[in-house]
Amino acid sequence: MSAPSRAVVVLLAGVLLAGCGAAASAPTASTASPAPVSVSDAVPVSTAVPVPAPAAPPAPRARHVVVLDPGHNGGNARDRAAVNAPVPDGRGGTKPCNTTGTQTDAGYPEHAFNWDLALRVRDALTAKGVTVVMTRDDDTGVGPCVDVRGAAGEQADADAVVSLHADGSAPGNRGFHVAYSDPPLNAAQSGPAHQLSADLRDALRAGGFAVSDYVGTDGLSPRRDLAGLNLSTRPAALVECANMRNAAEAALVGSPAGRARYAAAIAAGVEAFLNR
pLDDT digit string (tens) for 143-169? Predict the structure, then answer.
């Protein structure tokens, strides 16, 4: 290579080396140091434990509703045509609208016992916060018919229906029994009505009353002929508190103290069912 040519090569090499040095000294995006962050620019991080929002209070429990059905009525005897009129019995047949009921040998009528007892049970349940609906408003009217009584539980959206009665049998018979519709005609009758009846039976027995020695078994009596029970779509039971023709039981149902005892036991049985 001639001297002029070597001079050109040396000059080019110097230019390239100068360029490489400049490129090496220029920072790249991947190697550049991050810009300093001031304290005021930093996102604050809380170290406090978050406090959960208070839970909403539970919705108040709806009041229980119970229908009390004091059997018969004080005016039934004066309007035989009305109380003898046929109404559906719930099993494809008919029954009389209502009856006059029985009485003690001393003349104390069943309808009056049923009414007084219902008022006492109503007051006991109301004191516990239960809403009570009565199938009749007094002890002087006529009816209502048994089919109307049977529909009362559905109309009131009731949790339970309890029909209150006393029996009229041979003087030697004694004790209470609780009836329910059988064979059952709907879901309320197939199980809940049995439980209601058993709770009432247990409470009456715990209250010192003897189970019937002439009707049913162990204080329970399945019945297919009681229209008020057959037509009920809510748990329903009928309590025959005593035999009014038995002298000892007639004295019990005829006294305020005796009726108070029956009422306390029946209210306790209803409460036991409602609290299940």
Answer: 999 999 999 999 999 999 999 999 999
172-194 confidence digits (pLDDT tens): 999 999 999 999 999 999 999 99
φ, ψ of residue 132 in degrees (nearest 5): -115, 130
Identify the CA nearest to 149 among candidates 161, 137, 165.
Answer: 161
Angle at 204 between CA 200 and CA 206, to 5 degrees: 115
Residue 15: phi and psi, rounded to 5, are -60, -45
- The answer to whether the CB of 39 falls within 8 A of the CB of 77 is no
C-alpha separations of 266 from 24, 74, 76, 260 in Å: 102, 23, 26, 10
Distance, CA of 172 to CA of 174 (rounded, Å): 7
Q: Catalytic residue numbers?
A: 240
State the virtual CA torsion across 168, 173, 175, 178 in degrees, nearest 10: -60
120, with CB counted inside 10 A (0-12, 13-18, 19+), is buried
Closest of 246, 198, 243 to residue 222, by C-alpha: 198
